[in-house]
Amino acid sequence: MVLHRGVADALRQAIALGALPVGAPLPTEAELAAEHGVSRGTVRHALAILAAEGLISSRQGARHLVRGTERTQSLAELRSFAQWARRQGRQPSGEVISMARRPATVREAGLLQLDPGGEVLAVLRLRGLDGEPAMLERTSYAGWIADAVERIDPRADSVTDRLHHELGAVFAHAEHLIDAVAAGVRDAALLGVRRSSPLLRARRVSATPAGRPVECSDDRYRIGVVTFDIHTTSGVPVLARRAL
Amino acid sequence: MVLHRGVADALRQAIALGALPVGAPLPTEAELAAEHGVSRGTVRHALAILAAEGLISSRQGARHLVRGTERTQSLAELRSFAQWARRQGRQPSGEVISMARRPATVREAGLLQLDPGGEVLAVLRLRGLDGEPAMLERTSYAGWIADAVERIDPRADSVTDRLHHELGAVFAHAEHLIDAVAAGVRDAALLGVRRSSPLLRARRVSATPAGRPVECSDDRYRIGVVTFDIHTTSGVPVLARRAL
DNA sequence: GAGTGGTCTAGACCACTAC
DNA sequence: TAGTGGTCTAGACCACTCG
Question: What is the DSSP annotation of A43-82?
Fold first, then answer.
């Protein structure tokens, strides 16, 4: 019973199926309203969602235009490696190299809003794509969620999926810092690259809907594995992680 | 005469001045409507803008909350190095290393939607921050805008500014691909780093409001100069380039 | 000048939060 | 249970595009 969602879904599908090819104009707002039996306001809400997903653009006086075919959900997109890989039709793999509880570092305590000396669960995972090492993930979970994380089968390829199923909508906010670094000795050995070769780094802090930090992470990608794709249309940025 | 803009500006200022500190609840929508003499719909439009800027967040049933103080305008933010640097209180500099018209490569023709063999204006600029080499920018402008670019004083530190003043709102859409690369011989020499050391790369294509591509660029940053900051709140990504 | 999207209003009901 | 944001409607007028 969320009408604008229904309209958005119908349009998204028409675009995905090619009924509305890239560059084509959409029906007018009035037509869409009549077609779906809703008011124009609801149609505009649906169109705003598609615009925020990078699928359409608009200019006053001219019809809405199809600008892309791929929907991107930037939060899920950036957070779960396994979900992303599968949506690309690639085979994700994951191996837990180490996992231990320890006191938070000063930096971690700040990021996760923990008391000094609070506990974190530190996990180092090597992730692969179609059998090749692709990324090294160093994640620190806040102590209050550590039990739930430890209960997850370490062979599960998506910790995010499991947490979501067990605890509901845990993540609502995230911040990512993207830059480049030189591979250290350990990075190089695990990823199978030469020492000091370039890696793409994404550091992340995720929080609950109420703003409570859950985990922070330092992910390092071999070059040539992914790029981050920022598509900005009429001031609305749309984010995606892209395979190469 | 754009009421929602007025409401958004007032709230933005209240947040910037600290009258509404981070974490504080906003007045209710009904209160804001009464206060500004507008309808609730207009207030909601204003709040949606602030949410898209990463300044506030909301949950059904609870009041809107202030979540940040810095507005980010992701398109301008990513496109103009000089504008960005000045907003950070840093001193940008720029030097044109080479500038020449030549036929577009196949890749450029595709990105800029030019006819095969169409002309581009290729410019290589070395950009600095507070006197230090920071970034190498290889830009190719579509032939139809080359005249305007050539008329710009090569010492102007912001080509984007000048184009904007001369031609109006030239840019409305952009796509950025962010990854890491190893510095080539030429990159290393110009940026003052060792060969094959890591660089943060951002490749860009910008287009007019009507979707016509204007320029494409390959920017390479020394590591430690900037990070890209992606702040995602309730599904809305907000982008910024951050100095280190 | 006709068509179309952008803005705004006034009122209604529902879903969720917080007390 | 009262308060508050989320959704939806019906109608109006304006600003811009396009033939």
Answer: HHHHHHHHHHTTSEE--TTS--EE--S----HHHHHH-HH
Residue with CA nearest C1' of nucleotide C5: A60
Q: Which pLDDT tens digit goes with each residue over B186-242?
A: 999 999 999 999 999 999 988 877 778 889 999 999 998 888 887 776 666 666 676
**CATH class name, domain B74-243:** alpha beta
Confidence at A138, pLDDT banded by 50, 70, 90: very high
Q: Is the CB of A63 under 7 A from strand C?
A: yes
Domain boundaries, chain B: 3-66, 74-243
**Tens-digit pLDDT profile for residues B133-163:** 999 999 999 988 888 888 877 666 677 767 7
- The DSSP element (H or E) to which A47 belongs, if any, is helix A40-52
Assign a CATH topology to domain B3-66.
Answer: Arc Repressor Mutant, subunit A (1.10.10)
Q: Phi and psi at residue A10, in whole multiples of 5°?
A: -60, -45
d(CA A48, CA A57): 9
The Cα A192–Cα A199 span in angstroms is 12
Tokens of A120: 């974190």
By CB neighbour count within 10 A (0-12 exposed, 13-18 middle, 19+ buried), where does B67 fall?
buried
Partners of A237 on chain B (C-beta within 8 Å) are 74-75, 237-239
The answer to whether residue A69 neighbours chain B at the CB level (below 8 Å) is: no
